[in-house]
Amino acid sequence: LFSKLTGNKVIQAEDLTDSMETFRQHLITKNVASDIATKLCESVATSLQGQKYPSLSSIKTVIRPAMQSALVRILTPRRHIDILRDALEAKKNKKPYTITFVGVNGVGKSTNLAKVCSYLQQNGLSVMMAACDTFRSGAVEQLKTHARRLKVEVYEKGYQSDATSIACDAIKHAKNNNINVVLIDTAGRMQDNAPLMMSLSQLVNTALPDLVLFVGEALVGNDAVDQLTKFNQALIDLSKDKNPRTIDGIILTKFDTIDDKVGAAISMVYSTGAPIVFLGVGQSYTDLRRMNVDVVTESLLRG
Amino acid sequence: MVLADLGNKITAALSNVTRANVIDDKVVDDMLKEICNALVASDVSVGLVVKLRKNIKMAVNIQEMAAGLNQRKIIQKAVFDELCNLLDPGKKAYQPKKGKPNVIMFVGLQGAGKTTTVSKMANYYKRKGFNPCVVCADTYRAGAFDQLRQNATKIKVPFYGSYTEADAVKISQEGVELFKKEGKDLIIVDTSGRHKQEAGLFLEMQQIAEAVKPDNIIFVMDGSIGQAAFDQASAFKKQVAVGSVIITKLDGHAKGGGALSAVAATESPIVFLGTGEHMDDLDSFDAQSFVQKLLGMGNMKELMST
Ligand SMILES: Nc1nc2c(ncn2[C@@H]2O[C@H](COP(=O)(O)OP(=O)(O)OP(=O)(O)O)[C@@H](O)[C@H]2O)c(=O)[nH]1
Ligand SMILES: Nc1nc2c(ncn2[C@@H]2O[C@H](COP(=O)(O)OP(=O)(O)OP(=O)(O)O)[C@@H](O)[C@H]2O)c(=O)[nH]1
Ligand SMILES: [Mg+2]
Ligand SMILES: [Mg+2]
């Protein structure tokens, strides 16, 4: 008897259309890029078609859990990145662990580099910064200020010098002086700026850092997708190497400025599959968090 | 061009209307759906898009009743008007005048491009024969002092700031007073990045505004910002008298719509667009001609007069 009352309606594509459109709009108001909101809704709709559902419940109560698990799946990293573990491992092998921070202008590369520096120091590692933004006014002084406050060394050659050679020299210097970690700051650049992307690819593929972190801000809208894919593609296309480096992970910054419009997290992870390693949640050294997938998913669905 | 993608999509939606044999509700609805999707994909705030859709629908329906009018032109004009409304709050922007000290204060979110744009604007007005100078009231961000000072040196305009003073209100007041005494006619005050979630930062912004009594407050917004734009911009406007908007980083692939939402939220016109990191990368902006270019409507004037 029970089975007769429930599960007696098969979901057809038409049943889903209106509710799916509402969900799509909802995701967009949460700042998920619209292409990705569309794709996501399409795949959830496909997964639901042909399934049975209790006719007494509304179609929304069927979509919601399906959407929730799709979001959790996207945000759950396939590859776990633990920079502390990896840095400690490198220390054992007497090799400096190196991280390069890349991204478009003004997203928070230098500030979050300083936060990562502080985090690693707290865990007993010696850290050094490499000032490879040799273009933007004040970039070197900005890094020197952080280094002074955090009491670490900065490797810098002022402005107008070649970023790649600064990065390589800094790593050598760290090796010679038994410094455990080198954090490489780079200049912000637009993903369409071919010459600047070329020089970034050169830096990454020459200095060969252990980790390339893409820094993106949670404020960004539809451009998130383009930023991630083009940075990743530039590292691949512009490299002479057979096995070029790509983006390993993401730092999602300014997470404290967006209330519950957390959609950029989805847009970014969806674009390359690289996981979010940290969230930036403010301007102080301690404002670095790990992402809680369930909390972010809940924010996306709420409202 | 900025928003070119959006322009193409809207033009395509409009030409579907032109091609239709009969214009009925379905044709209009399809067009509206396409236009709204294009706007949302360009980061225009969803709330604004819903409003725009309603307005166009209303304009089109009302007109339909009057027989004999050219429906296609009415639809095109309704779309054009709404886009103009989005971009043009109908207020004139403050124009610095020679022969008096014009004090301009820059505000905005972290990393939006304030410091860079302060310098570009000083450079722009220097070329127009003004005597600009810049004041660094950002005592918060590491390297902010050096950043503005180095830019000021590059464009050869006087700079005021302090390495040691932590009180941004005091510095801005001192700087503005000093430059007024020196007879400078354009005094531009750069402030720290801030956001609505931190009340302390907003309070400081109000205090600086009270201290320097700016003739205009310019809100700087990153062209790639998404759905958070509208709320942030409204919050700034509530705290201080924002009078103009500058949208930056439009040399990239930015969709620009989030920043347009900021125009609606602040009811303030866009005065410049930032198109690069160099001191010359600043374009002045006019809403009407922008929308015309956007829609590829060279003959819009003709359309407007019918
Ligand atoms: N609210 C908030 N602000 C942040 C966060 N991370 C960075 N910022 C601020 O964003 C602004 C830009 O940060 P930077 O670290 O200079 O950014 P960047 O990417 O290095 O910039 P460029 O080198 O010029 O491309 C600064 O005012 C930072 O304090 C964050 O997580 N939350
Ligand atoms: N490509 C491009 N970059 C820009 C433009 N305007 C500013 N930038 C870059 O954006 C980054 C941030 O600019 P800033 O002027 O430091 O931003 P800000 O608003 O003063 O930042 P805070 O003081 O930290 O809040 C820098 O790397 C600038 O060079 C632009 O129009 N195009
Ligand atoms: Mg930087
Ligand atoms: Mg600044």
| SSE topology string of chain A | HEHHEHHEHEHEHEHEHEHEEH
Q: Work out the strand percent of chain A.
A: 5-15%
Structural class estimated from helices and strands of chain A = alpha/beta
Q: Give the spatial strand order of the biggest sheet of chain B.
A: 3-2-4-1-5-6-7-8
**Multimeric state of these chains?**
heterodimer
- Major sheet of chain A: 8 strands, mixed
Distance between the termini of chain A: 37 Å
Q: Can you count the beta strands of chain A?
A: 10
Low-confidence stretches of chain A: 1-5
Shape of chain A: elongated
Fraction in beta strands of chain B: 5-15%
**Order of strands across the widest beta sheet of chain A?**
5-4-6-3-7-8-9-10
Question: Which structural category fits the helices and strands of chain B?
Answer: alpha/beta
Tell how many strands the DSSP assignment of chain B holds: 8
Describe the structure.
- Chain A is an alpha/beta fold.
- Chain A is 50% helix and 15% strand.
- Chain A has an 8-stranded mixed β-sheet with strand order 5-4-6-3-7-8-9-10, with helices on both faces.
- In chain A, helix 3 packs across helix 4, helix 8 runs parallel beside helix 9 and helix 9 packs across helix 10.
- Chain A is elongated and about 70 Å long.
- The two termini of chain A are 37 Å apart.
- The N terminus of chain A is likely disordered.
- With 306 residues, chain B is an alpha/beta fold.
- Helices cover 52% and strands 14% of the residues of chain B.
- Chain B is built from 12 helices and 8 strands.
- An 8-stranded mixed β-sheet of chain B has the order 3-2-4-1-5-6-7-8, with helices on both faces.
- In chain B, strand 6, helix 10 and strand 7 form a beta-alpha-beta unit.
- In chain B, helix 5 packs parallel to helix 6.
- At the A-B interface, helix 2, helix 6, helix 7 and helix 10 of A face helix 2, helix 6 and helix 9 of B.
- The structure holds guanosine-5'-triphosphate (2 copies) and magnesium ion (2 copies).
- The site of one magnesium ion has 5 residues of chain A, from helix 6.
